[in-house]
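Protocol step 6 of 9: fold each sequence in the batch and record its structure tokens directly after the sequence line. For illustration, a two-sequence batch is reproduced in full.

Sequence one:
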Amino acid sequence: QVQVVESGGGLVQPGGSLRLSCAASGSISSVFAMGWRRQTPGKQRERVASIGNNGVTDYADSVKGRFAISMDNAKNTVYLQMNVLKSEDTATYFCYAFVKTGSGTAAYTDYYWGQGTQVTVSP
């Protein structure tokens, strides 16, 4: 089993900053990538940022230059530093980990998701 747990959400004023953390744990053999998506009521979950185990990052256009994703490979933990937050960044942020469990013929690769953490940007 793999567990993914987010933390760090909260209420912040426009222009402020927040840092989200997400740790993957359990029977993990390899972590290939981790990332964040966000969702608001009535809308589809949208891509925010991702990072591979080689350090290559990818960002949605809406957050480029304001958000920074990083990963501590030793801890299977990903961070999302969010700066210059806007009201439209308000959403539930979900972390995922793309990992391999097991080995040999028992190896299995899949995406695992956290429960989400709320980020609210409001005066």
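Sequence two, same batch, same settings:
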Amino acid sequence: QVQLVESGGGLVQPGGSLRLSCAASGSIFSNNVMGWYRQAPGKERELVATMTHGGSTNYAGSMKGRFTISRDNAKNMVYLQMNSLKAEDTAVYYCNYWSIMTRTEYWGQGTQVTVSS
């Protein structure tokens, strides 16, 4: 089992920045992918960005250039730096862990990000 705990969400004005953090604990294996997804009201959950243990990244097109994913493997942490935030970025952001070896997936409880003036 893997537990994921997100933090760092909140209310921010358009054009502002937020940094989300996700702490993973439990049965962590090195061959994994960690990342962020989001779900806006009335919409399906969508990819934001993922990062492999080795550092390869994958971003949704609309987030490229504004969002940056990073991770600290020693601490089992993954981060999402979000800049130039827009109202349409308002959503619940979920941390995701995918174990390539066991082919299992885990989700955090989500953290609300609201972009509004």
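Proceed to step 7 once all outputs are recorded. Observation for sequence two: The mean pLDDT is 95.
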